[in-house]
Amino acid sequence: MKSENFETIAIRTQTERSSHKEHSAPIYLTSSYKFDDAEEMRALFANEKEGNVYSRYSNPNTSEFIEKMCLLEGAEDGFATATGMAAIFTTFGAFLKSGDHIISSRSVFGSTHQLLTNVFSKWGVTFDYADLDKPEDWEGLIKPNTKMIFVETPSNPGIDIIDLEFLGDLAKKHNQLLVVDNCFATPYLQQPIKLGAHISIHSATKYIDGQGRVLGGVILGTKELIAEVIAFARHSGPALSPFNAWVLSKSLETLAIRMDRHCENALKVAEYLEKHPRIKLVKYPFLPSHPQYEIAKKQMKQGGGVVTIVVDGGVQGASKFMDGLKMFSISANLADTRSIATHPATSTHSKLTEEERNIVGIEQGSVRLSIGLEHINDIIADIEQALTL
Question: What is the mean pLDDT of residues 77-94?
Answer without folding.
Answer: 98
